[in-house]
């Protein structure tokens, strides 16, 4: 079947809810491995107490994620999205598996050797994140908004799932010998399994859903080359310059520079959302909140509350009147989050654990809500060249999705660097 024939199918193709479910699972797989590393931070702090693992691993992860994403965003229009996403999920699987191997091979002992090995694998997570997150967001940007919302909810669900399991395993193994290590091994095994499931879901099932084939065929007719392999896997051919039905005008699209200029406010939104969040989460929560009645459970509870509320908040924009769509209002909301930095400082210094739990929950609430608002509104906004707004087409939406993910990852990197400022001058730097 040809893409032109398939795009002429009924306008309401089947498989929407199946696609949303798969997007949710793929979202979990996009961050579950990294969230496992963060959530077992208390275990790594017992193995490497002098190396600031929560901060160092985040700092190692980010340059590789951003460096890879810069290359992918630049060459986005020429990259095979199918191979890109499958390569990312495969790298996630093997990296997570080898984190488990490192722990088993060293029998859970610390030292600089195992720590360097874990840092190398954290860098692999960064490369995999750029491959998958940019590829998936770009691909979903030209589909219906519910798909990208489900994917983003899956990203948050990975943190909530891991936090729930962490609390469960901490309670189950708290009184047993090597309880932290047993919990960490269980986490890594579950994460490896989820990554394997994601490989099969994306490779076999997602591609063949009627609604996914419809949107990809539509994008192909608008000039997108990135969907050709996925359409071929679904049994749909696309025209090339050597075949009939090809129109060079379809290939005309806004450049990345033009797209970035017209969507600069959205790019700024995502950068500062994550710069503020990562300047606090997780390093500050592990190292700067002091000792409270919850004892060793304190940091675990804070991480869990952030992840759970972050997940819930990503469903709020599904209610139309609760969704923030004004570009100016989004900017105001994003910049108002800078007030959270002094709020966390004074709460850690003078407040009790109840206020800190509330603040951490609010951090997660605003992070998830604003992320979904920006990434679902931006691809459907219009670029205002000339007198009339120009709706974005498939190739442009894909490119914009990659650019926005690059800004998101840049914000995470900036936040991870700023997170170190909390420990300057306290004698433990």
UniProtKB/TrEMBL annotation:
Primary subcellular site in the record, as a coarse category: membrane
Family: Belongs to the SLC29A/ENT transporter (TC 2.A.57) family.
InterPro entries: Eqnu_transpt
GO CC annotations on file: plasma membrane
Molecular functions per Gene Ontology: nucleoside transmembrane transporter activity
Residues passing through the membrane, by range: 17-34, 54-74, 86-106, 112-132, 144-165, 185-206, 266-285, 297-317, 329-348, 354-378, 399-423
Compartment list: Membrane
Superkingdom of the organism of origin: Eukaryota
Keywords of the record: Membrane, Transmembrane, Transmembrane helix, Transport
Identification of the protein by name: Equilibrative nucleotide transporter 3
Membrane-related topology note: Multi-pass membrane protein
